[in-house]
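Researcher: Here's the sequence for the chain we discussed earlier.
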Amino acid sequence: MLKPEDKILRHRDLNWLSFNERVLQEAQDPTTPLYERLKFLAIFSMNLDEYFRVRVSQLRQMKRVEKSIRKRLALKPNKTVKEILREVRKQQERFGEIYREEIIPELERKGIYLVHKEAYTPLQEEFARRYFQKIKDCVKTVVVEDHDEGDLFLENNQLYFMVLFPDSEKFGIVNIPTEECGRFIHFTSETKAHEITFLDDVVKANIAHLFPGDDIDGIYEIKLSRDAELYIDDEVDGLLAEKIYESLNQRSEGQPTRLLYDSAMPVHAQKVLRKTLKLGKIDMMPGGRYHNFSDYFSFPDPSENPELHFEEMPAVKHAVLENATNYFDVISEKDQAVHFPYMSFDYVERFLQQAAVDEQVKEIKISIYRVADESIVTSSLLKAVKNGKNVTVFIEAKARFDEKNNIDWGRKLEDEGAKVIYSYPKIKVHSKILLVNREEEGKLKGYAYIGTGNFNSKTARIYCDHALFTAHEKITSELLRVFQVLEGELIIPRAKHLLISPFSTRKDFSDMITREITNAKMGKKAGITAKMNSLEDKEIIELLYDASEAGVSVRLLVRGFTCLLPGVKGLSENIYMTSIVDRYLEHGRIYLFENDGNEELYFGSADWMTRNLDRRIEVIAPLYDEDIAAEFKDILEIQLRDNMKARIQEPLEKNEFVQKKRGEKDIRSQYEIYNYLKQKHTS
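Model: Thanks. This is the structure I predict for it:
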């Protein structure tokens, strides 16, 4: 039996690799259409790149902390990085096996061939020569002879060739201009087969033209990942947005975190490259012949064979909103919920479009975390300003990798006359909220939109999210207080209905978990069901352990990483956790508390992570409408019953799939939810 002081937490960065392993499982699944398997390989690669740029770079920064302090804080960055690299190498080996032994042969069976330069026919060689002549201005070369000069700079996540010469101390660097020219080239062919080559091979086949007079001993592809953190001094005066905007070039100049190189590269060349780039052995990661598999998102399908892709799932038409001519009337009458990507993001855009032109609308307030490059959301806000509405837009300038786009839109809105507020130092605004104030019967009436996903029509097609339109007076009045905080009019918002981070969410969730513990000890009905992206907060986890020990049934659905160890005797034996990775990215958060039979159901933007509870503006909303609460609960229960794409999360992190019980039907929750919503909204 474990004692309270023995309570265990997983390391978040190690467990994250278990999540990426689930992505790799999807790439290996032969029942997944071929091009979708390629996309899962691309997702795996993209995830890993960001992981090294953000999480591994943070561990490297910890190594700079004084050893005595690291010891006191129980920080072991060196040990953790070594464990990470061991696991990543194993995953990359499996990645290569899936690609070479399963994906490539299957493509060939479908008449699609990847042709490498060694297999070029004379006709293809001539095609490659002509193509290279067209793009050669984009191809840059550097010859390095003095390894201590520090003149060699490799941009983050860009592809290069290291070119070796007979003089073993001299080498060349050639960029592969995929951003300007694309990654894949479709050969014209007189046969029925479709032949595709990498831009890498076209450059490689013609690389001798870049070094006239030199003999070439070898050509090996490399890629450097750099630290993604901006290290902005929050105490410096001036707009944080401006500081971020000016610092974005650090993205390409940050500290190296990983050099991925062709494992066929000779050892002496590895040493020369490492010395030139001033890298440690731990920074070197052997890989395959090609890197940047995230480019496979754009891998062409010249066959246009629908069997190679997921079957289309046309958006479910919302029973009320689809034909509503006035959203304010239907929302005033009853709350309305939408679920993406099963339903269209058009409903959100239409709401904003109506608000922009409605003469009774006086104010629009919105928080934007990530927005598409061009969107109806932003164009509607611009139109609202032109129509004389008071428009307040909170722009999160620190949304990682979207800073520039967010700030650009903020500037456009400011130029048109909107009130734009940028990020605060040391806190992010992660809530997905919108408030429209409309003059009705001589006073302002609020209409709110609260969601789990961003105001982004592109991501709404691949992220599973939930949202609520409501005119509930208590909710809209409390949401107004959230915006007053963002506008600097309030320091702490008063709220009895919404959970608002960093002010009340931690306390409210802690109180609700504690109430379930008390109920269980008193023999009352007690249970906690929670769905989220990640679970990391130590205090919440320890409360969940206490709940398990008290006999509370805890059912968790966590897509990404978790620091909680479920199913451990004497610690968490009443906690059962699964994770779903499937066609769409699970992104919604839903929290259900039994409360002795008087269930309380919440949803919103916050995970049970310390940053979401203490360092971000988040909004979690109750579901008061009985019909909508039942709909959310039905969706949650469908996911809990998934026996096709759900993996059991347990201490050994095997990622084993949930096994179907005898007589039980197949339940693939994303498809079941689609059919459920389709039936409900067409009946």
